[in-house]
Amino acid sequence: MIKRVIDTKVVNLDELKLEKFSAVGGKFEGESARIGQLLGAKELGYSYDVVQPGKVSCPFHSHAAEEEMFFIVKGTGTLRYGTETRKVRAGDVICCPVGGPDTAHQLVNDSNAELAYISVSTMMPAEVCEYPDSKKIGAYGGNSPSRLKHMTMANAAVDYWKDE
């Protein structure tokens, strides 16, 4: 059977091969599949994430360049956004625009069942993220395996003219 081009642009969530991840002693844990790469997306990144009860998939963070959207597919949890929180459930669509600490966001599975969601983001060639809980800043650039990735503490500022 010949695979049609249109068939390479569609995938069902049930057919995804999820990759498990865990960090910080299991505080951050989940399963994920990068759908955008799988389907050949060029300008948008999208993934499917499943988070077990009591877990969080990523640190509380904001973006300087990339906008994100989340669609809750299954379950319930809590959205942290800026200084506020609210319950979210299957069917909710969440907007996380570019900004500073006021747009920092995180999905927490504080329920007794799986929380599953689709993430969509603009794929910018350069990005800076702030992490208010840990007071870190991350700078990212390029799309190659050797892309720039640098994390530093927010209070570790260096003067622009230092060592010039």
Tell me what the structure shows.
With 164 residues, the chain is mainly beta. The protein has one domain (5-124): Jelly Rolls (Sandwich). The chain has one helix and 13 strands; from the N terminus they run ββαβββββββββββ. Strands 1-2-3-10-5-8 form a six-stranded antiparallel sheet. The protein has a four-stranded antiparallel sheet with strand order 4-11-12-13, with no helix packed on it. The chain has a three-stranded antiparallel sheet with strand order 7-6-9, with no helix packed on it. The radius of gyration is 17 Å and the shape is globular. It starts with 18 loop residues before the first strand and ends in an 11-residue tail after the last strand.
List keywords for this structure.
single chain, 164 residues, Jelly Rolls, six-stranded antiparallel sheet, four-stranded antiparallel sheet, 1 helix, 3% helix, 46% strand, globular
CATH architecture: Sandwich
Low-confidence stretches: none
Instruction: Report the structural category.
Output: mainly beta
CATH superfamily caption = Jelly Rolls
* Overall spatial form: globular
Q: What is the percent of helical residues?
A: under 10%
Strand order of the largest sheet: 1-2-3-10-5-8
Q: How many DSSP-defined strands?
A: 13
Strand content is over 45%
Number of domains: 1
C-alpha end-to-end distance: 63 Å
CATH class: Mainly Beta
Q: Work out the helix count.
A: 1
Largest sheet: 6 strands, antiparallel
